[in-house]
Hints:
heterodimer; A: alpha+beta; three-stranded antiparallel beta sheet; 47% helix; 7% strand; B: alpha+beta; two-stranded antiparallel ribbon; two-stranded antiparallel sheet
Amino acid sequence: MSDALTGAATSGTAEVPEWPMPRAEGCPFDPPPALRELTAERPLAKVRIWDGSTPWIVTGHAEQRALLGDPRVSVDERLPGFPHWHEGMAAAVDYRPRSVFNSDAPEHTGFRRIMTKPFTFKRVEALRPTIQKITDELIDAMLAGPKPADLVEALALPLPTLMISELLGVPYEDHDFFQENAARGIAHDVSAEESMRTFGALNDYLVRLVEKKAAEPADDALSEIAALVTSGDISVSEAAMMGTGLLIAGHETSANMIGLAVVALLEHPGQLAVLRDTDDPKVVAGAVEELLRYLGIIHGGQRRIAKEDIEIGGEVIRAGEGIVIELFSANRDAHVFPDPDALDLRRENARHHNAFGFGIHQCVGQQLARVELQVVYGTLFRRIPGLRLAEPLDRIQFKHDRLAYGVYSLPVTW
Amino acid sequence: MKITVEQDKCVAAGQCAATAPDVFDQREEDGVVVLLTDDPPAELADDVRDAAAVCPALAIHIAHWTPRTTP
């Protein structure tokens, strides 16, 4: 939409491009070329978003880490000028309780402490046999079913959904309901009304579940959160918000990483062989880091606002200006990753990617995601060495319009 | 001064425990970093430096540290 049509332009410069930008046709794994042009020689630029405002977009790896770790940079979505993802997010702002997603330290620290217990490195490692068992069962079922199969439906979506459901204590039989509402809630084209409706439906569901767990505690994360409601430490709506966040982030992101990585690996058979031909967990772990770096499924830009003037990258971000941190671009920053557009599963510093973000808001569930991906990538190609796309690459539908990038479905055969 | 951690800043991302599990652990109740040793052997030096670099909360500090060599 142009300025002339919306009449929303406030700044004089005409050359501010629209964000988000499309990726190049036939190049599903690379960042938008227009973004690269815009930031080729500088790590920050201005873009125009849906409401006509012109936040900064930050693409440099070092600049992203500095800003994400800077206490002058806020996630408080209620501050005027905050660069919301879309109209729906802006409209529902007063209905969302405070949570890890929209509070700064020290308030954030309290919420974060409550959520992190189930996701420690050791606790997640202890889940590895369960993740392996579920992966094997899902692959068994796919192999026993018709060909071609949809890998998203058969493996990519159910594995992380089953894991996060079990960990939280959310009944898996409700998965159609929460998967659908989560998917609509993070679509770019969602209206304010629909955003409120999907958020409301998920929130009501989690409120009922928290109340149930408070009355009849079980051995799961939601029961532990519900106990804090009973003891008066947090409100029901805060607990429900935590549950909603963990539930959505816990299945949608890993599902996209599984589906998209399978496409990327099938398109890079030499790299796929690295994974298929190894029993070394270190090689598999390194491959997962490289896929996290290369695929960059979080591509819409993390949203922030400056609370004070900040000098960075040869620019000054003024207090009250919006900031879009486009994590994926930093993963292709040649200052950090040599030959950044190459998928190299043996890349030594791949783990320095920003795929999980950086700073105090870095992904809570990242260790769970890692183990899920290590198990899936390590198992799938060993068990089905002949796995291949059942349709040409240009027929695969990519999620250009979602906050998380991935494939809608993935027809495969073997 | 060797290796120090700031538990108040820690956000329990688990990156340190995953990178250098012989040096960093996490508190059972909330995942906050626990330093197992402030003077690990030289063969862990690279892992320790990596752990400090990937800590999203910048809660790990290495100062004046010459890793000891195993006797």
